[in-house]
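Batch job 17 of 40 flagged for manual review because the log was empty.
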Amino acid sequence: MNENIFRILAAIILFTGIGISSYYRRKADKENGEKISRKVDGTAMMTVIRVGGLILWLSLLVYLLNPAWMAWSRIGLPEWVRWLGVGIGVLCVFGIYWLFSSIGSGITPTSATRQRHTLVTSGPYRWVRHPLYTVGTSLFVAFGMIADNWFIALLGALTFVIMAIRTPKEEANLIEKFGDEYREYMKHTGRFFPKPGGGS
């Protein structure tokens, strides 16, 4: 299979996901009339997120520009695994749209909540409290499969670890804002994956 096909598909998936995310994030900022400060997560955490994110995005762009530059981390996956990555990537794009359209103006770039934030329990939030982290990680692992590249997949997995470390602080903020309503919501939902018997 021509490598260019996988590059084109990866680019379509990547930039469609970025477009959806950017649209809803700008819309949320405009509707709320506020910009969330990134300082709320602390300097060390934001440094890790920014540096890790930069390396991840640069790795993807390097692959899209010239796969030969990422040949040092090539796995040698069978073609069907790469096509499976394409399928997972497409599903993730639909997941991105679903979660962003569900949370609407409540989306923030940090663990902070917006002043007019309301608790969203519909869409994917009916079953999972933080679907963005699950879908985002799945998307980057899918990119690793499409690109046949362990480094991209590993960075995607490490991103999940970083977000998981930040999540307790995010949930503490949500408990502070919503109190028992959020505590009750936690009983029926999983943090990153649906809880067996939850969402009812």
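Reviewer: the log was empty due to a logging misconfiguration, but the result itself is present. The chain has one domain: 3-188. Unflagging and moving on to job 18.
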